[in-house]
Design goal:
The structure is a homodimer. The first copy, chain A, is α+β, with helices and mostly antiparallel strands. Helix content of chain A is about 15%, strand content about 35%. In chain A, the strands form 7 sheets. In chain A, strands 6, 7, 8, 9, 12, 13, 15, 16, 20 and 21 form a 10-stranded antiparallel beta sheet that branches. The longest helix of chain A has 18 residues. Chains A and B meet through strand 13 and strand 27 of A and strand 13 and strand 27 of B.
Amino acid sequence: MRLLPLIAALSAASLAVPAQAQEPAKAVTVSSPDGSLVVSIGAGNEGHPTWTVSRKGKLLIAPSRLGFLLTDGLPLDRGFAVTGSETATGDETWEQPWGERRFVRSHYNEAVVRFRQAEHRGARLLNIRVRVFDNGLGLRYELPEQPGLKTMNIAEELTEFRLVPKGTAWWIPGGEFNRYEQIYQKTPIDAISTAHTPATMRLDDGTHLAFHEAALVDYSAYWLKRADGQTFRTTLSPSSRGAKVVRDLPFATPWRTIRIADNASGLVENDLELNLNEPNKLGDVSWVQPGRYVGIWWGMISGKWSWATGAQHGATTQRTKQMIDFAKKHKFRGVLVEGWNKGWDGDWFGTGFDYSFTQSTADFDLKAVTDYARKQGVRLIGHHETGGNIAVYEAQLEDAMKLYGQLGVDVVKTGYVADAGGIIAPGDKPGEVRMEWHDGQRQVQHHLKVVQTAAKYRVAVNPHEPVKDTGLRRTYPNWVAREGARGMEYNAWGPFNNPPGHEAALVYTRMLAGPMDFTPGVLSLQGSNGVPMSSTLAKQLGLYLAIYSPIQMAADFPESLEAHPRELAFISQVPTDWAESHLVAGEVGEYAIFARKDRNSADWYVGGVGGAEEHSVTISFDFLEPGKTYTATIYKDAPGATYQTETRHAIAYETRKVRKGDTLELWLAPGGGAAMRLAAGK
Amino acid sequence: MRLLPLIAALSAASLAVPAQAQEPAKAVTVSSPDGSLVVSIGAGNEGHPTWTVSRKGKLLIAPSRLGFLLTDGLPLDRGFAVTGSETATGDETWEQPWGERRFVRSHYNEAVVRFRQAEHRGARLLNIRVRVFDNGLGLRYELPEQPGLKTMNIAEELTEFRLVPKGTAWWIPGGEFNRYEQIYQKTPIDAISTAHTPATMRLDDGTHLAFHEAALVDYSAYWLKRADGQTFRTTLSPSSRGAKVVRDLPFATPWRTIRIADNASGLVENDLELNLNEPNKLGDVSWVQPGRYVGIWWGMISGKWSWATGAQHGATTQRTKQMIDFAKKHKFRGVLVEGWNKGWDGDWFGTGFDYSFTQSTADFDLKAVTDYARKQGVRLIGHHETGGNIAVYEAQLEDAMKLYGQLGVDVVKTGYVADAGGIIAPGDKPGEVRMEWHDGQRQVQHHLKVVQTAAKYRVAVNPHEPVKDTGLRRTYPNWVAREGARGMEYNAWGPFNNPPGHEAALVYTRMLAGPMDFTPGVLSLQGSNGVPMSSTLAKQLGLYLAIYSPIQMAADFPESLEAHPRELAFISQVPTDWAESHLVAGEVGEYAIFARKDRNSADWYVGGVGGAEEHSVTISFDFLEPGKTYTATIYKDAPGATYQTETRHAIAYETRKVRKGDTLELWLAPGGGAAMRLAAGK
């Protein structure tokens, strides 16, 4: 039995279409500033809060349910009526301290719709706010203070998306062993299982969508679960404590966002999630410094050195000083050192009980190293691997950040290497632990605690095995980058190699979330045991323009970098902070060429990555300043190169003058890429 | 970062294939009695318990992980080694008190593999038992008594299925609003999202599979979640209390089962889950009586009468007595009456706070009705709708069952009408509630409690909105049927009509789990407001042979049944208990024709359902006893009939003699069906 007796009371007319497909009664409608995107919110015919989205007159999301399951009370999903609503408009331009572009415009119309549940179902109040931009929308729940509900114990969030038009999706599975470190799948939309966000779709009419969320604070991340057909709903990442989210009222959920654009560049040049986050809460953040870095890391990843102490230990004082010298010589700001601290000598994967974040190994003199670095004008980049054990880490967090602050270590890479569901959080009593997910409420709280603690000591944070990025760098600009995808390191592991189209998928999926510490710049193009990468040499340079991060590594061994002096010269001066960024050519999963303007000069940089197949693209230099002549230094795939043979090392160089209005034909090899600097003339 | 440092320590050779694709080391292998099915279990190269399945020399399930996440301790998923194993063989034939066949053979080889986890990961013991039949397998975890683990707080079960061959699947989504009441999807296997079980697949080589579970006791049901590609894993139904399952050691999980056969009949004529359940624990169950029934129900479902009191109240003393007279006249054993008790007058959907299970409404005299029924040789079938409120129901359960026992009500239909996640269970303190799922551990416990309490009073149970069936009728033979799928009632709701192929999908999916109270026999072929069903008249008779239940309703109004005297005559004598059952013709989702032998006579019955398209099938009477002549009374679709027009009412009758070796051409209309009685001559 299903939904009687309400159905029995309905007229024949109202039975003509299934209940969930009906337009909500008393719907409140709000349009984007240009009128193209229209969202309406109301109560469906069993009192389900319901929303609908159309674009350019076409139905995009059919009437879809909204609400919550609770662990300790009747669901907030039916028996609601609209009691009121308000609308507003916003238009502001704000400045980023660092990023892909300096100025960001936020222009939207919004509505908040007030719902009240029937008396016998609890008479609870629920507000739904929607903010509609020309290139996307955000929807969130707001739980106002109310007599009958002090704390929400949320078992599940029931936000539904009944997507109408058919199309193709690029996605990785949510809730699986390996967190976000998956190869992107390209499937029909109706062959998604449960996806992490951002999940990107191209509808058959060419419209591009990306489902994600903004301002994930004190809440669980959601996975986009497909029910069947093209009906999706939110599934919150689990908690060990019953309710997936516990919040005192009043509070607002993160925004559920959909970027919507006519093409791929409209998806990429889109600040929807940043605009839905709160402004900078840290005040002066001039101490957050973008920059390039090298490190003692690729040696461990590729199996030559070890994190553990012993003959192969990577993090020695001597090796670090050598790396500092190298960094100084080639204009790298930072030197990352992993394995400098105690705790690496056992099987720490998913355990991490032995880690100290303040005590170094006998062969590593932290004070000497940071002193030496300071003298050379280089900064040590700190490292806090936890093995997923945040119980151990949080107990030392304040001391650990304080230590780094004192030593001038102003960026720390953190790590949470554990299987999904294997985060070890403190229990209620000494000796007890609670096992959590990398993207559950507890870990979301943890990450913000780390970022806030680091900020006290003027340290920026770069978590690996993180929770996904939801634009919080706007509010906390010391949250400079994250991993949260398959990075370069997979190319060190032979058979686990990233496929040649991996980065061209990342640009349109993971990278919509925010900066990634991908660690490009392995110019030797090989991993452990000489297994070749699915990359040309030019692509290694293109990665600096395709995969944005304010901190960009050159991951290879110093000797491998110096073996390619022209490429190293490019890497040594490619900016990591931009005034403008534009996707000048690209299709999801196929290729991505950006033009980016240096924030500290009049120079432009153009480049990016290809995919599995070769591509010939025409670059129009429309973005250049009129009347100016630029000297283009071009690095590109040599004719006939392919990642599949030794020709992957074949690169071609060219220097030419370019002006606004010029065009350039650029050939991208299979697994290829390109990069160029456009130095502004007088 | 992913799985270092273990990878770093591996040789180049072992890196040649991804870790998860490697055969486990020290694997224990067990084959089915005929050798066709081979399962091996061992430890993968990071100590993951791992299993592999092949059939007839072809890999069916590539090495797949096994294990658990806990809420309060390190995962039981890595760092394990095999410490020992044992094998055994079983071959027995046992008798069912009622069912599709009287005698069931259980013939298998089994192995139990003993694992121990590394010291620093907890040194925990985990045994995995696999039982391999010629037509399927079961795998379960056994947690032996051990020093370091008294109670398992299971966050998730990590049983993985990396299915290799491609194919087609029939499935409904798991974890969605409407529980199991979904229309079956037919998609490629790699377009499943998250499925309830049984989930049925046909591989491209014709092999048929059905994923399910057996002996779901004191545990959460699992949903078959697709990660990506054809990799699936178990997702346990949620709990409001953190751990999805809480169990003291020692205990065993339910069996994870896969039926495997060369064709559709091998899937259907398959007692895998029954064989994996414990024998009858109730002793003498002669009081569990199969039979046909009618009821005061279709009137409410179709909107003519009401459950609530008032002018339209269905459950009046007078109407019930009339229904008893009708039942007696047409040889129905039972009369179901819904709405006889107090509590229906408000909006009870998902609330159910007002229900009494012992107090009747003013216009319904329970004592008078049951006295009258007894005199007529008819039994009242009880009804306990809870609105999902098991807090209210459990408080009255003993009294309610005792009352029915005293009055000779020996079957009760229970109901849990609430949204998924909306079961209202008692909280820890008075006034508190815990919200649970229809298939979570708490509700699984509830159902068994109801069945056991009912058994004390010699009452059989037929839950609607139940947990899925996993063969527990073997252990508790008073658990006679369930709903747990879209039944006939959807045809009363106009636009929600079941599609014409619905029942031909049910036979190969939901019905693999066990008996369903589908409630066939709506001979008027119309729902509320005269909306026609996607069914011919002959199909209504065929349903009695296609959809097995020991209690079978004739759902239509008495006057509609009597308007079809020949069809009513068939329904009035079709058995509900069989000596043998065979699928003599059928393909998943297309059609299903059964031959079933009456358990109480030498008669056979043949019939079933078609699908959306017409089918011509040849029935071979090979199953008949040699040398005997049978008189076949045949009900079939008239030539040209289709569910799409008024010809749905067109039925043809035929009587002929048949003998073993004869064949019969049978045409099934679109939305059609057929039924025949083969009365054994001397």
